[in-house]
Amino acid sequence: MDATVLSDLSWLLRWAARLGWNTVSRRPFTPPALNFLVTRRCDLRCKHCFFWEELESQDPSELSLDEIRQIVERMGPLFSLVLSGGEPFLRKDLTEIVKLFYDHNRVKLITILTDGQLTDRVTSSVDRILVECPEGLLIVGVSIDGIGSLHDEIRQKHGAFDRAVASFAALKERSRNEPRLGVQTCTVLMRPNEHHIFDLYAYLRDELSPDRISINLVRQDPLDPSVSGVDPNVYLKLVRMIEKDTYAGRIRNRFPFDRFALSTVADLHMMNLVYATYTTCRPQITCYAGLSSGVLFPDGSVFPCELRQSLGNLREHGYDLGKLWFPYRTELRRNKSRAACFCTHEIDCFLPSLLLNVTHYPSLVRRWLKVFRGQRRMQQRPVSLSIVVPTLNEAGYVGALLESLSTQTYRNFELIVVDGDSHDGTAAIVESYRTRLPSLRLIVEKERGLARARNVGARAASYQDLVFMDADGIVDKDFLATLVWEMRKKGLQVASARTKPLSRRMFDLFFYRLLLDPGMRLLQFFFPIVTGACIAVTRELFDAVGGFDETIHFEDTAFVKKAARQGRFRVLKGACVTTSVRRLDADGRVRTLWKLIIYGVVRRLFRGEKPLSDGFYTFGKFN
Ligand code: SF4
Ligand code: SF4
């Protein structure tokens, strides 16, 4: 069994033993899960906010870092810490707060919920937390309630959506190389977005691809009361979609460190319980809020959950949570109110209570088996792609390529554009696709050279399969899906796609269909010839051949020739790139044909690669 799971289980067993002993001996005890609302300050005023009466632009009553230090020093070990607010990243000392809990309470799982409006502060704090808590597991949830203006309308701030997506993309970028960081989206289902919720779900699933899509039902007394009263059928349909996609392995729905998908199972089960609670108005679970979890407000008030009355303020109890937290006392409180007590609060009610509701175990196990099968299916899918596109003054072309990549049916890819410091607005056009291609990265590389740009892109790539494309190509929406499927089916480590011209001239059709395409197919078995329109290769093979040679002409073909000696190469039949004919226009059709045959094939075949210093081939814009 996974070491993480074993250590989690042993932690919980030790906590259960300590709970038993402290209850019998009537000793003070602190909960293993704490929801700490670190501030009342918030940069938004969302329509669904149930905390709106508490929100302040300044909050002098906020616990200071020194007071928090006193609290954590008197607290027992903590398994899970949720930091929310207000907007937690408005606290400049957020990293220090996390570090205090990490050092004193050995907290393992830290979750921070943000509206994502302060991208720079979010990313720099996350970077610091990961460094300063070397064994901590961090989940950051970014709130997204609609696409574009709908989100802005709900959050009552122009540009809120773009900022939230930018924060999400920056976090996702970090999570690629950091398995201790999980990034989820948090959506509140409410009246204003219930008719658009399936479009939003598709956007989150296909465009943003978070580790988990978290859906919360609007609750309590929101700022705008008209947002309440969601149609339960919409919620149920959404829950079923998430379940189906998870069981089919279509979405990940799992944090990178949660190897056995335990939180996934809990989440799916919890959504079903929320639906049942919402429709029957009856409790579906014995709530252990006040025993296994507690809530700390910014001013030091302690609650068993956000919805019940305060147990007291830590400032009046020597900052000692244990004194307020005798489990038998809080248990009594809970029992007193149980008859009338039920809610749909995911964080305060269901998640901390599931483990203690053993009657739910059979259903959890059934779900786990289905999730496990889905995860197996997902693992069998090809790994994600890193697409590298070099550009230099490609303003007239690159938009069409990015447009076609943004509509791909295969979504498991990141896009890296390496620009040679263009002066025609190429970078601005690339930047304009950030929302539609959240995984897009733009690298400006002042030192020019096509091979160099490709190598730079490959070094920055996060995934194990690389695809190099020219900026003047266009692909159909199934291009990547076909490429991945064909490579996998044929067991290829390196491949090139077919090309066809973006032209109706007879010569161009003749050149591509009767010369280039059949020529590439004929030579693929002993002397591969490719264009730069598309070269797909595994990273292992890319590294093994040392990347593209930056000192020669026809570096793409030379690269494939070398790679084909160590891995299996084919020109794909299904995947096809439509390329511009600007090279033929600029260099002349007959001249280009002559150069390709004489220098690209015959000379290379008998005399080897031609160094750049020979300078015979002047078209290359990068040289
Ligand atoms: S819902 Fe959250 S982000 Fe929105 S106003 Fe309330 S505390 Fe701020
Ligand atoms: S059921 Fe809800 S309101 Fe009642 S104690 Fe649990 S979390 Fe609080």
DSSP helix fraction: 40-55%
Rg calculated over all Cα atoms:
29 Å
Pick out the low-confidence regions: 618-623
* Class per helix and strand makeup: alpha/beta
DSSP strand content? 15-25%
Count of helical segments?
A: 23
Bound compounds: iron/sulfur cluster
Mean pLDDT across all amino acids: 86
Largest sheet: 9 strands, mixed
- The strand count comes to 17
Second-tier CATH architecture of the largest domain:
Alpha-Beta Barrel
Overall structural domain count: 2
Overall spatial form: elongated
CATH class of the largest domain: Alpha Beta
Q: What is the fold-level CATH name, i.e. the topology of the largest domain? A: TIM Barrel
The termini sit apart by 54 Å
Strand order of the largest sheet: 6-5-4-3-2-1-7-8-9
List keywords for this structure.
single chain, alpha/beta, TIM Barrel, Spore Coat Polysaccharide Biosynthesis Protein SpsA, Chain A, 2 domains, nine-stranded mixed β-sheet, disordered C terminus, binds iron/sulfur cluster
What does this structure look like?
There is one protein chain. The chain has 23 helices and 17 strands. With 623 residues, the protein is an alpha/beta fold. The protein folds into 2 domains: 32-378, TIM Barrel; 381-614, Spore Coat Polysaccharide Biosynthesis Protein SpsA, Chain A. α2 links the parallel β1 (33-37) and β2 (80-84). α2 (65-74) packs parallel to α3 and α3 (94-105) packs parallel to α4. The longest helix has 22 residues, at 3-24. The two termini are 54 Å apart. The relative contact order is 0.08. Mean pLDDT is 86; it is low at 618-623. Bound molecules: iron/sulfur cluster (2 copies). One iron/sulfur cluster binds at residues 287, 289, 304-305, 307-308, 334, 341-343, 345, 348-349.
